[in-house]
Request: fold
Amino acid sequence: MEIQVAIIILLVAVIIAELAIYLIATILQLFKINAGLAVVLPVVGGIIVKTAPVNPVVDDINRNLVITRDALENLMLKKGGADAAGLVESLFPGEGAKFLRRVNRSGKVVNVGTVYTRGVGILASLGRGAPIGAAHTKGSAIRDAQYSTSEVSKLYPAPPDRRDPTRQIPKAPIIGKDPVHSPYEPVLTSGTRNRDAQGNRIDAPPPTPPAAPSAPTGGAAPPAAPAAPAQLGRLSGKGLRPWER
Amino acid sequence: MADAALWIMVIILAVVVLLLMQLLKRVLAAATSIPPKIDAIAGVAVAANKDLEAVALLLTTQGYVASIKGSVLDYGGSLNAALPDY
Reply:
Protein backbone atom coordinates (compact mmCIF):
# COMPACT_ATOMS: atom_id res chain seq x y z
CA MET A 1 0.00 0.00 0.00
CA GLU A 2 1.32 3.35 -0.96
CA ILE A 3 1.93 6.05 1.58
CA GLN A 4 -0.70 8.35 0.04
CA VAL A 5 -3.44 5.80 0.52
CA ALA A 6 -2.44 5.31 4.12
CA ILE A 7 -2.59 9.03 4.76
CA ILE A 8 -5.96 9.27 3.10
CA ILE A 9 -7.34 6.49 5.25
CA LEU A 10 -5.91 8.17 8.31
CA LEU A 11 -7.46 11.51 7.42
CA VAL A 12 -10.86 9.94 6.82
CA ALA A 13 -10.62 8.25 10.17
CA VAL A 14 -9.77 11.57 11.77
CA ILE A 15 -12.75 13.23 10.09
CA ILE A 16 -15.08 10.52 11.33
CA ALA A 17 -13.71 10.73 14.86
CA GLU A 18 -13.96 14.51 14.82
CA LEU A 19 -17.56 14.38 13.69
CA ALA A 20 -18.42 11.82 16.32
CA ILE A 21 -16.82 13.71 19.21
CA TYR A 22 -18.23 17.14 18.41
CA LEU A 23 -21.68 15.93 17.42
CA ILE A 24 -22.02 13.83 20.56
CA ALA A 25 -21.04 16.84 22.68
CA THR A 26 -23.53 18.99 20.81
CA ILE A 27 -26.26 16.41 21.33
CA LEU A 28 -25.57 16.41 25.06
CA GLN A 29 -25.92 20.19 25.13
CA LEU A 30 -29.20 19.91 23.22
CA PHE A 31 -30.47 17.51 25.88
CA LYS A 32 -29.65 20.10 28.52
CA ILE A 33 -31.43 22.77 26.51
CA ASN A 34 -34.47 20.54 26.19
CA ALA A 35 -34.58 19.96 29.94
CA GLY A 36 -34.25 23.68 30.64
CA LEU A 37 -37.03 24.56 28.23
CA ALA A 38 -39.23 21.96 29.86
CA VAL A 39 -38.88 23.94 33.09
CA VAL A 40 -39.30 27.37 31.52
CA LEU A 41 -42.25 26.78 29.24
CA PRO A 42 -44.86 25.87 31.93
CA VAL A 43 -43.81 28.91 33.97
CA VAL A 44 -44.18 31.17 30.94
CA GLY A 45 -47.57 29.61 30.30
CA GLY A 46 -48.54 30.47 33.87
CA ILE A 47 -47.48 34.05 33.29
CA ILE A 48 -49.60 34.25 30.18
CA VAL A 49 -52.60 32.83 32.03
CA LYS A 50 -52.19 35.24 34.92
CA THR A 51 -51.78 38.31 32.74
CA ALA A 52 -54.68 37.50 30.46
CA PRO A 53 -57.38 39.34 32.48
CA VAL A 54 -55.18 42.35 33.23
CA ASN A 55 -55.99 44.35 30.13
CA PRO A 56 -59.78 44.53 30.53
CA VAL A 57 -59.45 45.24 34.26
CA VAL A 58 -56.93 48.02 33.73
CA ASP A 59 -59.03 49.42 30.90
CA ASP A 60 -62.05 49.52 33.21
CA ILE A 61 -60.03 51.20 35.97
CA ASN A 62 -58.68 53.77 33.51
CA ARG A 63 -62.14 54.46 32.15
CA ASN A 64 -63.52 55.07 35.64
CA LEU A 65 -60.58 57.29 36.54
CA VAL A 66 -61.03 59.34 33.37
CA ILE A 67 -64.74 59.76 34.10
CA THR A 68 -63.93 60.89 37.64
CA ARG A 69 -61.25 63.27 36.46
CA ASP A 70 -63.54 64.78 33.82
CA ALA A 71 -66.31 65.25 36.37
CA LEU A 72 -63.98 66.97 38.82
CA GLU A 73 -62.45 69.14 36.12
CA ASN A 74 -65.82 70.22 34.83
CA LEU A 75 -66.88 71.05 38.38
CA MET A 76 -63.66 72.98 38.90
CA LEU A 77 -64.20 74.84 35.64
CA LYS A 78 -67.78 75.64 36.53
CA LYS A 79 -67.00 76.87 40.02
CA GLY A 80 -63.52 78.27 39.56
CA GLY A 81 -63.99 79.85 36.17
CA ALA A 82 -60.92 81.61 34.86
CA ASP A 83 -58.97 80.74 37.98
CA ALA A 84 -59.55 77.00 37.63
CA ALA A 85 -56.36 76.37 35.70
CA GLY A 86 -54.43 78.48 38.20
CA LEU A 87 -55.84 76.47 41.07
CA VAL A 88 -54.87 73.23 39.34
CA GLU A 89 -51.42 74.69 38.68
CA SER A 90 -51.02 75.62 42.32
CA LEU A 91 -51.85 72.10 43.45
CA PHE A 92 -50.07 70.18 40.69
CA PRO A 93 -47.33 72.25 39.05
CA GLY A 94 -47.30 71.80 35.29
CA GLU A 95 -50.84 70.45 35.12
CA GLY A 96 -52.60 73.79 34.57
CA ALA A 97 -51.79 73.96 30.86
CA LYS A 98 -52.82 70.34 30.38
CA PHE A 99 -56.04 71.08 32.20
CA LEU A 100 -56.76 73.95 29.81
CA ARG A 101 -56.06 71.75 26.81
CA ARG A 102 -58.35 69.02 28.13
CA VAL A 103 -61.24 71.42 28.59
CA ASN A 104 -60.60 73.05 25.20
CA ARG A 105 -59.69 76.41 26.71
CA SER A 106 -56.72 78.63 26.04
CA GLY A 107 -54.97 81.36 27.91
CA LYS A 108 -52.17 81.98 30.32
CA VAL A 109 -52.05 79.82 33.43
CA VAL A 110 -51.34 81.88 36.52
CA ASN A 111 -50.36 79.90 39.57
CA VAL A 112 -52.60 81.41 42.22
CA GLY A 113 -50.66 79.60 44.89
CA THR A 114 -47.64 81.71 44.03
CA VAL A 115 -49.45 84.96 44.67
CA TYR A 116 -51.68 83.92 47.51
CA THR A 117 -51.60 81.09 49.92
CA ARG A 118 -53.89 78.29 48.93
CA GLY A 119 -56.65 78.96 51.43
CA VAL A 120 -56.72 82.69 50.86
CA GLY A 121 -56.91 82.22 47.13
CA ILE A 122 -59.86 79.87 47.36
CA LEU A 123 -61.69 81.99 49.92
CA ALA A 124 -61.09 85.16 47.95
CA SER A 125 -62.31 83.62 44.72
CA LEU A 126 -65.43 82.38 46.46
CA GLY A 127 -66.06 85.54 48.46
CA ARG A 128 -65.00 89.06 47.73
CA GLY A 129 -63.58 88.68 44.26
CA ALA A 130 -59.97 89.38 45.12
CA PRO A 131 -57.64 89.94 42.16
CA ILE A 132 -56.58 86.35 41.80
CA GLY A 133 -53.92 86.03 39.17
CA ALA A 134 -53.38 89.77 38.92
CA ALA A 135 -49.64 89.33 39.00
CA HIS A 136 -47.39 87.25 36.86
CA THR A 137 -46.19 83.99 38.27
CA LYS A 138 -42.55 85.00 38.08
CA GLY A 139 -43.18 88.53 39.38
CA SER A 140 -43.19 89.84 42.88
CA ALA A 141 -46.01 88.85 45.18
CA ILE A 142 -48.97 91.19 45.51
CA ARG A 143 -48.88 90.84 49.26
CA ASP A 144 -46.65 93.37 50.89
CA ALA A 145 -44.80 91.96 53.83
CA GLN A 146 -44.48 95.40 55.49
CA TYR A 147 -47.98 96.68 54.90
CA SER A 148 -49.81 93.41 54.62
CA THR A 149 -52.59 94.50 56.94
CA SER A 150 -53.22 97.59 54.80
CA GLU A 151 -53.44 95.38 51.73
CA VAL A 152 -55.90 93.12 53.49
CA SER A 153 -58.00 96.09 54.57
CA LYS A 154 -58.11 97.21 50.94
CA LEU A 155 -59.29 93.80 49.90
CA TYR A 156 -61.72 93.42 52.78
CA PRO A 157 -62.81 96.88 53.91
CA ALA A 158 -64.72 97.24 57.13
CA PRO A 159 -68.48 97.24 56.75
CA PRO A 160 -70.15 100.68 56.76
CA ASP A 161 -71.56 100.37 60.28
CA ARG A 162 -68.08 99.92 61.67
CA ARG A 163 -66.82 103.03 59.86
CA ASP A 164 -69.29 105.28 61.75
CA PRO A 165 -67.17 107.08 64.41
CA THR A 166 -70.22 107.98 66.50
CA ARG A 167 -70.80 104.35 67.38
CA GLN A 168 -67.42 104.18 69.09
CA ILE A 169 -66.93 100.54 68.41
CA PRO A 170 -63.70 99.52 70.11
CA LYS A 171 -60.92 98.49 67.85
CA ALA A 172 -59.15 95.23 68.04
CA PRO A 173 -56.76 95.01 70.98
CA ILE A 174 -53.22 96.06 70.21
CA ILE A 175 -50.62 93.75 71.54
CA GLY A 176 -47.71 95.77 72.87
CA LYS A 177 -45.24 95.76 75.67
CA ASP A 178 -47.79 96.32 78.41
CA PRO A 179 -51.25 95.96 76.92
CA VAL A 180 -54.19 97.06 78.99
CA HIS A 181 -56.64 94.59 77.56
CA SER A 182 -54.33 91.80 76.64
CA PRO A 183 -56.11 88.60 75.69
CA TYR A 184 -53.14 86.61 76.92
CA GLU A 185 -52.34 85.68 80.46
CA PRO A 186 -49.08 86.90 81.99
CA VAL A 187 -46.17 84.61 81.53
CA LEU A 188 -44.83 82.63 84.44
CA THR A 189 -41.21 82.81 83.36
CA SER A 190 -39.35 85.62 81.70
CA GLY A 191 -38.34 84.96 78.17
CA THR A 192 -35.14 85.87 76.40
CA ARG A 193 -34.87 88.19 73.45
CA ASN A 194 -32.28 87.13 70.92
CA ARG A 195 -32.53 90.23 68.70
CA ASP A 196 -33.24 93.88 69.40
CA ALA A 197 -35.78 96.03 67.59
CA GLN A 198 -33.37 96.65 64.71
CA GLY A 199 -32.79 92.96 64.22
CA ASN A 200 -29.27 92.94 65.65
CA ARG A 201 -28.31 89.86 67.57
CA ILE A 202 -28.04 90.35 71.32
CA ASP A 203 -25.31 88.47 73.07
CA ALA A 204 -26.69 86.11 75.65
CA PRO A 205 -26.00 87.24 79.23
CA PRO A 206 -23.51 85.07 81.11
CA PRO A 207 -25.19 82.44 83.19
CA THR A 208 -25.55 83.42 86.81
CA PRO A 209 -23.60 81.17 89.15
CA PRO A 210 -25.65 79.29 91.69
CA ALA A 211 -25.94 81.00 95.06
CA ALA A 212 -23.40 79.77 97.56
CA PRO A 213 -24.75 78.49 100.87
CA SER A 214 -24.65 81.10 103.63
CA ALA A 215 -22.84 78.87 106.07
CA PRO A 216 -21.51 75.37 105.83
CA THR A 217 -23.73 73.11 107.82
CA GLY A 218 -21.60 70.02 107.62
CA GLY A 219 -23.85 67.16 106.60
CA ALA A 220 -27.14 68.99 107.07
CA ALA A 221 -30.07 68.32 104.76
CA PRO A 222 -30.10 70.23 101.45
CA PRO A 223 -32.28 73.34 101.29
CA ALA A 224 -35.92 72.66 100.55
CA ALA A 225 -37.29 73.22 97.06
CA PRO A 226 -39.23 76.43 96.55
CA ALA A 227 -42.90 76.11 97.26
CA ALA A 228 -45.25 75.64 94.35
CA PRO A 229 -47.39 78.64 93.48
CA ALA A 230 -50.76 78.73 95.17
CA GLN A 231 -52.63 78.93 91.87
CA LEU A 232 -51.27 77.55 88.66
CA GLY A 233 -51.40 79.79 85.67
CA ARG A 234 -53.38 78.93 82.63
CA LEU A 235 -51.43 77.07 80.04
CA SER A 236 -53.86 77.56 77.21
CA GLY A 237 -56.38 80.10 76.01
CA LYS A 238 -59.27 77.72 76.55
CA GLY A 239 -59.56 78.31 80.28
CA LEU A 240 -58.58 76.55 83.40
CA ARG A 241 -57.76 72.93 83.26
CA PRO A 242 -60.38 70.63 84.79
CA TRP A 243 -58.35 69.92 87.91
CA GLU A 244 -57.79 73.64 88.53
CA ARG A 245 -61.47 74.60 88.62
CA MET B 1 0.05 10.91 -12.59
CA ALA B 2 -1.77 8.70 -10.17
CA ASP B 3 0.62 9.73 -7.41
CA ALA B 4 -0.10 13.38 -8.00
CA ALA B 5 -3.82 12.79 -7.80
CA LEU B 6 -3.40 10.96 -4.52
CA TRP B 7 -1.30 13.77 -3.06
CA ILE B 8 -3.91 16.31 -4.09
CA MET B 9 -6.55 14.22 -2.37
CA VAL B 10 -4.42 14.07 0.76
CA ILE B 11 -4.08 17.85 0.78
CA ILE B 12 -7.81 18.33 0.25
CA LEU B 13 -8.64 15.93 3.07
CA ALA B 14 -6.23 17.70 5.39
CA VAL B 15 -7.88 21.05 4.66
CA VAL B 16 -11.30 19.48 5.18
CA VAL B 17 -10.22 18.14 8.54
CA LEU B 18 -9.14 21.59 9.68
CA LEU B 19 -12.26 23.33 8.39
CA LEU B 20 -14.55 20.72 9.86
CA MET B 21 -12.87 21.02 13.22
CA GLN B 22 -13.36 24.78 13.27
CA LEU B 23 -17.00 24.54 12.27
CA LEU B 24 -17.83 21.86 14.81
CA LYS B 25 -16.04 23.80 17.51
CA ARG B 26 -18.23 26.81 16.84
CA VAL B 27 -21.40 24.73 16.85
CA LEU B 28 -20.44 23.18 20.14
CA ALA B 29 -19.57 26.57 21.64
CA ALA B 30 -22.96 27.95 20.60
CA ALA B 31 -24.78 24.94 22.02
CA THR B 32 -22.81 25.16 25.25
CA SER B 33 -23.70 28.83 25.74
CA ILE B 34 -27.47 28.18 25.64
CA PRO B 35 -28.12 26.18 28.87
CA PRO B 36 -26.89 28.92 31.27
CA LYS B 37 -29.15 31.42 29.54
CA ILE B 38 -32.10 29.07 29.83
CA ASP B 39 -31.38 28.65 33.52
CA ALA B 40 -31.38 32.43 33.93
CA ILE B 41 -34.63 32.73 32.02
CA ALA B 42 -36.15 30.05 34.19
CA GLY B 43 -35.21 31.96 37.34
CA VAL B 44 -36.68 35.19 36.00
CA ALA B 45 -39.83 33.45 34.82
CA VAL B 46 -40.39 31.82 38.19
CA ALA B 47 -39.93 35.17 39.95
CA ALA B 48 -42.25 36.91 37.49
CA ASN B 49 -44.83 34.20 37.94
CA LYS B 50 -44.65 34.70 41.69
CA ASP B 51 -44.93 38.48 41.36
CA LEU B 52 -47.98 38.15 39.17
CA GLU B 53 -49.89 36.54 42.01
CA ALA B 54 -50.73 40.11 43.06
CA VAL B 55 -52.58 40.66 39.79
CA ALA B 56 -55.70 39.32 41.46
CA LEU B 57 -55.68 42.46 43.62
CA LEU B 58 -56.47 44.44 40.50
CA LEU B 59 -60.01 43.13 40.81
CA THR B 60 -60.22 44.68 44.27
CA THR B 61 -58.77 47.93 42.90
CA GLN B 62 -61.31 47.84 40.13
CA GLY B 63 -64.13 47.65 42.65
CA TYR B 64 -62.64 50.43 44.76
CA VAL B 65 -62.21 52.73 41.76
CA ALA B 66 -65.78 52.12 40.67
CA SER B 67 -67.09 52.94 44.14
CA ILE B 68 -64.85 56.03 44.33
CA LYS B 69 -66.21 57.17 41.00
CA GLY B 70 -69.74 56.87 42.31
CA SER B 71 -68.88 58.76 45.49
CA VAL B 72 -67.11 61.54 43.57
CA LEU B 73 -70.02 61.91 41.20
CA ASP B 74 -72.49 62.08 44.08
CA TYR B 75 -70.32 64.54 46.00
CA GLY B 76 -69.73 66.59 42.87
CA GLY B 77 -73.45 66.83 42.32
CA SER B 78 -73.91 68.10 45.84
CA LEU B 79 -71.09 70.62 45.41
CA ASN B 80 -72.58 71.70 42.12
CA ALA B 81 -75.82 72.49 43.89
CA ALA B 82 -74.24 74.00 47.00
CA LEU B 83 -71.58 76.29 45.54
CA PRO B 84 -72.37 79.23 43.29
CA ASP B 85 -71.08 79.18 39.75
CA TYR B 86 -68.22 81.40 38.72
Summary: Chain B touches chain A through 47 residues (CB under 8 Å). The first helix of chain B runs from residue 2 to 51. Residues 24 and 30 of chain B are 10 Å apart (CA to CA). The mean pLDDT of chain B is 90.
